[in-house]
Write a structure and sequence with these properties.
Layout (H helix, E strand, L loop, with lengths): L13 H16 L9 H18 L1
Length: 57
Amino acid sequence: MIPEDYKVTVRIPKSVVDVIDAISEKRINYGEGKSSCNRTAIALEMLKLGCRIMKKI
C-alpha cells in the first residue's frame, strides 16, 4: 500500500518565513481563524502552488 501523504521536514530561509508571517498577519486581519492560517498551512499552500507552476513549465 502506497501512502498518499508523506511527512517531511524542510528548512526554509528567514526571508521565506518573513513572507509567510506577513501572509498570516494579513489573513488574521481579514478575519480568518488563527488555526487555518498558521505557518505550516501557508507553507504547504505555497509548496502546492509552486508545484503546479513547475508542472506547467
